[in-house]
Amino acid sequence: MLEPTAPERPADTGTAPALLAVAAIVALVLLWALRELVVLVGMSVLLAYVLDPIVSALGPHHARGRGVPRGVAAAIVMLVIVMIAGFALAWLLPQALGELVRFVERAPTIITDILIRVRGWAMANGLSNYIDPITDEVRSSLAGLSHNITGIVGGAIARVFGTLGSLLGLAILPLLSFYLLAEREEVKRSAFRFIPPFLHGRMRSTADAVDRALRSYVRGQAIVCLVMGTSVGLALTLLHFPYSLFLGMLVGLAEIIPYLGFLMAATTVVLVGFTLAPLQAVLGLGAYVIINNLVGVFVTPRVMGRYLEMHPYVVTISVLAGAKLLGPGGVLLALPLAAIVQATISQYAQPVPAPDEIMIAK
Asked: What does pTM read for this prediction?
């Protein structure tokens, strides 16, 4: 005869929720105090997710029986990435920054030309009394800005990279990503030692859901950025736009920031186009808008997958919250963090499965 018996439970289950709540509060306080480190770790995780398919392709394949050890594959891939980054820092980045500085130095002249055209249009349509005070105010602001605009740009760049620079710079980023690529299972087992054993089952299912969400986001976003940057850069080159290298990079990076990135990139394309002619600005903006819509219709839905399902309102709030809490790095991490939160809440919203009954044969 078989009789079910109740599973054994910890003797003091009443204090478990309170201890978990205290641990969660302490963890949140520590994460906030170490938010600059959180940004660095988050970027290393994203980089590891981007490179994981390459490492897996180079690693051992049980079916084919060939491939290099995963640690060696991770070292090779990371070495190539470091070499590419070094090349970009030594050759590509100075050219892009040079174009950016030259564009920024010419920005007051471009805006002044726009204001002159606006005043002419206002005069022709009898609106000078309304438009002239506005253009005069803008021109007076530009007069003071043009003297130190290069210093302002340099200070903005320094602020963007300043937080990560205080943590030994980006030099440690490849090392953290290497550990995640080469020894991901060991890292996971080590992290689980900080979690009570009775939560391991739930945490494993949550980790799987987060893994799916991050893989979908990182791979999809990388493809979208590459397609947008390359397509718009080539289109602007064919339209004989100056600063095409900088504009292509800007458009690609702008895809990381929904809505706000589009507005920044579109404004920059228009301003650069006005250095040639108003028609050129319209053509450049039109090319950017058309490519952006084509990518949004045919590329983004396919590559982003079904795991990052958030309404545009939630996406926008997530981006603004990330920027407010974590600074420039938070803008880049806002959507993946939102994906993690979404996957975690969805997982914990599911009912906890009842423990299996223990059957004792009599």
From this structure: 0.64
